[in-house]
Amino acid sequence: MEYKDEKGKYYSGDEAYKAAVEAGKFDVIVLDGLTNPRVDDIIASAVRGNPHYRLLAEIPFRNANGTSEYRIWLKSH
Question: Could you tell me what percentage of the chain is helix, strand and coil, using 3-state DSSP and rounding each to the nearest 5?
Fold first, then answer.
């Protein structure tokens, strides 16, 4: 991922996810814990306690890769 903040600072990779979430740039965030657990952990850490987002739901599921839950955050306006 690539992200440029409002001051023009450029971020890439993991830092881009973290900076964009901390700045509230996404309307909806959905993590499943299985597709890319490392990136999910980075995003989950950035969204935790972030005033831009509120947790909407945690929905358990099972698929061929295992069991987990969808964690869905909505942007607080």
Answer: 25, 40, 30
